[in-house]
Amino acid sequence: MIIKPSTALRNEYGLISDLCKEKNEPIFLTKNGEGDLVVMSIEAYKMREELLDLREKLLAAEANRISGAKTYSIDEVSARMQEVIHAHK
After folding, report:
1. Domain segments of the chain as ranges
2. Which residue from 35, 39, 31 is spatially nearest to 14, judged by alpha carbons?
3. What strands lie across the sheet with 27-31, from one edge to the other?
4. What is the pLDDT of residues 5-39, one digit of tens each?
5. Are strands 2-5 and 27-31 parallel, antiparallel or unpaired?
6. How far apart are the first and last CA of the chain?
7. What average pLDDT does this structure show over 55-62?
8. Nearest one of 37, 41, 38 to 24, comparing CA atoms
9. Cα(25)–Cα(49) distance, rounded to whole angstroms?
């Protein structure tokens, strides 16, 4: 975890930007010794959002499974994929 004072954002923007990209993790900024902001690269933000979206989809799928929705075995999915692939040739 990288922690910097908020003044570093103004005084060391280039360093903060480089650290975010190099470490691919957020930097926590403090103000008067207390947590204030989190700064991260766009790539790290996009990855985080994609992971959160995937997590939501997995939770929804699990909730559907638990509630009795039809599920498919790996063999059933594989066979269906083969059908689709061969139908488009």
Report:
1. 2-40, 44-87
2. 39
3. 2-5, 27-31, 34-39
4. 999 989 999 999 999 999 999 999 999 999 999 99
5. parallel
6. 51
7. 96
8. 41
9. 13
Which tokens sit at 17? 């930007």
Tell me the CA distances in angstroms from 4 to 20, 27, 76, 81, 82, one per residue in order: 12, 7, 52, 50, 53
Q: Please identify which residue in the block is written with the tokens 């040739």.
A: 89
> Residue 26's closest CA among 12, 40, 47, 36?
40
44 burial level (CB within 10 Å; 0-12, 13-18, 19+) = middle
Phi, psi of 35 (to 5 degrees): -60, 135
CATH architecture of 2-40: 3-Layer(aba) Sandwich (3.40)
Residue 25: half-sphere exposure toward Cβ, Cα within 13 Å = 5
